[in-house]
Amino acid sequence: MFGASRTEVAVTCRMCHQLYTLAVDMDDFKLWEIERVPVQRAFVDLKGVPYLSDGERELLVSQTCDACWASICSENAEDTGSEQTQ
Ligand SMILES: [Zn+2]
Predict the structure, then answer these.
(1) 83 Cα: distance to centroid of ligand 1 (angstroms)
(2) Residues with beta carbon < 5 A to ion ligand 1?
(3) 47 alpha carbon to ligand 1 midpoint, in Å?
């Protein structure tokens, strides 16, 4: 719980098929996957501070990585050159 003992889990982006590893506490993972606790509440430390970045949470929830989200957004905005991540 609370990110105390983290295990690396592999997540493949469904857009670019890049394999990513995220370090999550498996108890927290089960909270999210089985108990359906929202990601922003499941993956928090003892102080209630999320220990996964927005991008990492999105990757878990939607299997879409930061880079692909950026390209989706830039497509919508009809923008070019969107390598940047936050
Ligand atoms: Zn991707």
Answers:
(1) 12
(2) 13, 15-16, 65, 68
(3) 31
* Model pLDDT, residue 77: 77
User: Total domain count for the chain?
Assistant: 1
Range of the domain at 59: 6-76
| Ligand 1 centroid, distance to 75 Cα (angstroms) | 14
Please tell me whether residue 75 adopts helix, strand or coil conformation. helix
In tens, the pLDDT along 56-73 reads 999 999 999 999 999 988
For residue 17, how many other CB atoms are within 10 A of its CB?
8
In this structure, is residue 1 part of a structural domain?
A: no
- pLDDT at res. 18: 97
Q: Using the structure block, give the residue that is written with the tokens 């390209």.
A: 71
